[in-house]
Specification:
Helix content is 41%, strand content 17%. The chain is α/β, with parallel strands linked by helices and 286 residues long. Helix 1 runs parallel beside helix 4. The structure holds adenosine-5'-triphosphate and magnesium ion. Residues 41, 44-50, 72, 75, 77, 163-164, 216-217, 241, 243-245, 247-248, 251, 266 line the site of adenosine-5'-triphosphate (ATP).
């Protein structure tokens, strides 16, 4: 397939110029973002979004300036988990202002652009067959636009919540000027271990380091945990987060668990993991 650079005549729309201008805008937008961290897992439903919301919350509680980009365009959940669902996006002089969610976290999600609860994301294409062919390119374009048009301002950390699977990680990383690292989420089960092992391989192929593996919903499943997986893959183990139904209830209310029940074991686990990440990303903080 032709890449956009190979397109000889583009009907005067200057696609190459447009994409390059957007890419430059994106780099300028992210200039004041100290560290970008992608939260990934080959496996769906293991808690990537919950981990993103709670790590963002744990960083925000230490006074860090935190943003979250929901890169799951088809199953966005960050607007719900961080309490900005239904907020109207404001376009200021500097660009689209990400709404401030729980603990002042700046959130950008496809959820904020969809008309209502029942509306799914659909790509505009003359036929569904063409939508199928172009889906990857359209997703990458949408994410590039998100990153280029959002006025993040100065941030210590920008977390990117990815959809399940390993393939999107390379796409997102390709759009970013720099990635500080990836955090890989798994649950203690053999099925998860096998799938997540593959996503660690993908993450290890990037220039950015794998910051570590998090074992989520610990105690819920009997299988081998994230610690063994991390050891096997030769990457750091960041910690275990126990299964706690109250964490899920808080997420549905738009509150990171670390904000509402900081003394609960699951919240303490997130706080400890964030402290370890903070050391790696921001250095010792006074
Ligand atoms: N430690 C936990 N204890 C209890 N419930 C949890 C925990 N972690 C996540 N959950 C719940 O499990 C469900 C799935 O979590 P979440 O949406 O974060 O997973 P995900 O990996 O982002 O899913 P997807 O692959 O669809 O993006 C949610 O209802 C969430 O509230
Ligand atoms: Mg998710």
């Amino acid at each position: 397939m032709k890449r956009y650079r190979d397109i000889a005549g583009d009907g005067g729309s200057d696609i190459v110029g447009q994409v390059e201008a957007q890419q430059q805008r994106l780099a300028a937008r992210l200039r004041d973002v100290h560290a970008i961290v992608a939260v990934v897992s080959g496996k769906g439903g293991v808690g990537k979004s919950s981990v993103t919301a709670n790590l963002a919350g744990a960083f925000a509680r230490t006074g860090a300036r935190v943003g979250v980009l929901d890169a799951d365009l088809n199953g966005p959940s960050m607007a719900t988990m961080l309490g900005v669902r239904g907020r109207t996006l404001v376009v200021g002089a500097a660009g689209v202002e990400p709404p401030l969610g729980a603990l002042g976290i700046r959130v950008m999600s496809m959820d904020l652009l969809l008309a209502d609860d029942a509306t799914p994301l659909t790509w505009q294409a003359p036929t569904q067959a063409e939508a199928y062919t172009w889906r990857g390119a359209m997703e990458a374009n949408a994410l590039r636009e998100f990153l280029a048009d959002t006025a993040w301002g100065a941030l210590d950390v920008l977390f990117i919540d990815l959809p399940p699977g390993s393939d999107r990680l390379a796409t997102v990383v390709g759009l970013l000027p720099a990635l500080a690292g990836t955090v890989v989420v798994t649950i203690p089960s053999d099925v998860s271990r096998l799938v997540v092992r593959k996503s660690i391989t993908v993450a290890q192929g990037l220039k950015a380091p794998v910051l570590g593996v998090i074992d989520n919903m610990a105690g819920m499943f009997p299988g081998p945990g994230g610690e063994a997986l991390a050891r096997e893959a030769g990457v750091p183990f960041l910690g275990s987060v126990p299964f706690d139904p109250a964490l899920a209830e808080a997420a549905d209310r738009g509150e990171p668990y670390v904000a509402v029940a900081p003394a609960a074991p699951a919240a303490r686990a997130f706080t400890a993991i964030a402290a370890r990440l903070g050391q790696a990303l921001l250095g010792p903080r006074s």
